[in-house]
Design a protein that fits this description.
Blueprint: E1 5-11, E2 14-22, E3 47-48, E4 53-54, E5 62-67, E6 70-74, H1 76-87, E7 91-97, E8 107-115, H2 120-133, E9 136-143, E10 146-155, E11 158-164, H3 187-200, H4 212-225, H5 245-267
Parallel strand pairs: 1-7
Antiparallel strand pairs: 1-2, 2-8, 3-4, 5-6, 7-9, 8-11, 9-10, 10-11
Helix pairs in contact: 3-5
Length: about 280
Amino acid sequence: MHTMWKGSISFGLVNIPIKLHAATEDKDISLRTLHKECHTPIKYEKVCPVCEKEVGKDDIVRAFEYTKGKFVVLEDNELEQLKKQNEEKAVEIVDFVKIEEIDPIYFNRSYYMSPNDGGIKAYSLLRQALKESNKVGLAKIIIRSKEQMAVIRVVDNTLVMETIHYPDEVRSTADVPNIPANDTIVKKEIDTAVLLIDQLTTTFDPTKYTDDYRTALLELIESKKTGQTIAAKTKEPVSNNVTDLMEALQASIDRTKHDEPEKKKTTRKKAAPKKKKQA
């Protein structure tokens, strides 16, 4: 597994040298844009709209637009110096909290942490301490020139770091439009909805969920490579004449009841044949 960052975790006076590895990968299928006439990949050039000429890498600077059309230019050496000053902090655990206190909206990306040279014992100590305390570490880290908050927890005997958003990066729910202020749902509708949820509740098994669109797109690409034609799979529309919320809930419950015997039938094991008694 590729090492993308090397540093250390510190909490109190304990220092643990670690390596960071990306825990997830983006499996989106990347499509190129071609010239329709000759199928040549399109080239995108950086052009100054005022000078009307192509701009090279050495002619580009970075800047912050503090008001429309007004910029503060930042030199590369200034940014590099600022980056080095903050990178010295490595991964510093500032607090320990219960993970239930962190709303999932704050979570961003996940990374596996492995011990670097000389860090095995301290790594194991932190891992066991987190397990027994049922807490997670709240830390700060610099990744790609940005200081981020992170949660350090244990997953399958491995320390995992998950970057989280700062509070000012999470938009307020008060800004979401058209949220109903008062509940207008009657008790019977609530009870029926809860019953439907109970009937659809299962144990989470991530292996049963797949990206159907990506699979279909790969099949289409493969078929065009080999010159085959495949018929597009279309789902048959579900016919219903439901006119109100209560009818929709009840119809959904009836459908799940109808599907239950089929599920049980496919999972039921055959009983072992009885042995005949010997005379």
